[in-house]
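Homework-ish question, so no full write-ups if that breaks the rules, but can someone show me the predicted structure for this set?
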Amino acid sequence: MRYISTRDQTVRIHAAEAIAQGLSHDGGLFVPEALPGLSAGQIQSLCAMSYQQRAVYIMGAFLQDFTSAEMANFAERAYSVKGFDTPAIAPLEKLTDDTWFLELWHGPTSAFKDMALQMLPYLLTASLEKTGERRQACILVATSGDTGKAALEGFADVEQTKILVFYPKDGVSAVQEMQMVTQAGQNVGVLGVHGNFDDAQSGVKQIFSDRELARELSDRGYFLSSANSINWGRLLPQIVYYVSAYCDMVNARRIVIGDKVNFAVPTGNFGNILAGFYAKQMGLPVDKLICASNANNVLTEFIQTGTYNRNRPFHTTISPSMDILVSSNLERLLFALSNGDDKQVAGYMKELAETGQYTVTSKIKAALDQTFWADFCDDNQTKETLRDVFEAQNYLMDTHTAVAYDVLEKYRTTTGDTAPTVVVSTASPYKFADSVLDALGQRGNAEGLALIDRLAEVTGTVPPQPLVALKGKQPRFDEVVGKDGMLGAVGVFLE
Ligand SMILES: *Cc1c(COP(=O)(O)O)cnc(C)c1O
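A: Not a homework solution, just the prediction itself:
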């Protein structure tokens, strides 16, 4: 199987090249030229497998230049009980007969980004070897909080890599910031940026497009690489947990193979929900993908109207990992829904860059409607939902998951659909302990890491061990730069 660029189909490369390169030279994203199928018989076999085996099976179908022994080794190491606090890795928890939570935050950094970023370093280093790349990969990450820590944890002390993370100084939670600035490892760097996530992300994109810098770095033995979800190696591991959740629902005897389920997904950069779309395209019986946004509701509007318009105020919310106005992975969806029309996709992306908006054809809009449903909720609704579910059903969600739950309720009220639905739970509530305590009306005067103890005390739940361990750690990084200072910081980091 080859990978092609969403903006130019004539670019056709192997999986290892796509992963090593990250982004296509024409600015497009790499996508598989065809998806492997997933039959009822195959789903049946997957039901009997462990999470690691499911990962080998699904990912292996996309990565034909990797051997199954290689994939098995990666899966064992990426999804081990050393890094995850449950052997299920991605457990499915039942709330009611019709509402289930897929908990993707049992990994080392307590957010769903671990599902991909525990795997990516193995895929990337193997890809460098397969493509004969001798230079060191300098991984640049712009983060709204969770990706940064998960990438640092995944790449810390990984050979032939260095990693530099930029985060919006005032756009992440206290716990998230502590997680990043205390990161161990010889090859890591962390910098605050004055501004919001889009500032950090556009700064990184600018650095990637700087040809002079690329040449200079190459002379010094480096090339720039990305751990953001534009890399296919980030997206692919995420397909696994959609299939895994379906199997677990079969195993729980809630459905039989062939029954359709919905997924409600708290969405930012559109990476998570896109993996669900690919799972459906492969043949997983999924009906609706419910796209949930916070006050930054650019995706809600797009899915409801067919017009994407980033010209709007940026809101800082209590679900900061979804505070995004430009969702990079939407480009892959447009490519799929236009039946691989690279010219059309390139046109939309040009319009977006030049005017900040584009409107898709009625054909694409109709295809969108077949699978996607979207709505959003504001911070007050998020808090209310979080509190209600905890008080009535004793299940504690983080703020992002609460957005998805709220939007699922809106979906059910609007459509009357009663199909079993999986709410994709993307972070431990402890990662956003400040806002979760606010929602419960229980913050008191706790601050910083004391919020973790406070949340445990008032809810009777158990905090993830790595978050508790932050208390004994010293910050290693405290530098903050302006957006203009990001380029220079890369040079300094690599000295
Ligand atoms: C990254 C993140 C999201 C958004 O996921 P996308 O793949 O960017 O759409 C939602 N919730 C949490 C907790 C996250 O870390």
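Now go work out the reasoning yourself. Hint: The CA atoms of residues 338 and 344 lie 8 Å apart.
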